[in-house]
Target: RidA family protein
Amino acid sequence: MQKEPIVPAGGAPPAGPYSPGIRAGNLLFVSGQGPFDADGKLIGDTFQIQARATFANIERIITAAGGNLSGILRIGAYLHTLDDFAEFNDIMRDVLPTPHPARTTIPVPLPGFLIEIDAVVLLPDPA
Model:
């Protein structure tokens, strides 16, 4: 099976030697995304703004691979503090369609931002 890197136009540049997404067949593996714009600058100073920006970055990668948010099977959510857990749940309910994906949420001392999310996505069959 071949691996295809997915690098969306207008996406934040990788901060290291990795692809924003890797497509393998109908699966897309989205690397950890944070609240950064296309120039790599931090977006927002509140958890709500940063979480929504992070989901927008994930959606950009999924769209570039030919999918959409409804294909997300699993996410890993890394929160600077679990004090934001309830707000994260509210944002997930608002941003992601049901059925909601499987999820792991872990507190991590992130370097200067409040949230990072990775994802595994089922893409539609190619036409």
Q: What stands out?
A: The chain has a mean pLDDT of 95. The first helix runs from residue 47 to 64. The domain at 3-122 is CATH 3.30.1330.40 (60s Ribosomal Protein L30; Chain: A;).
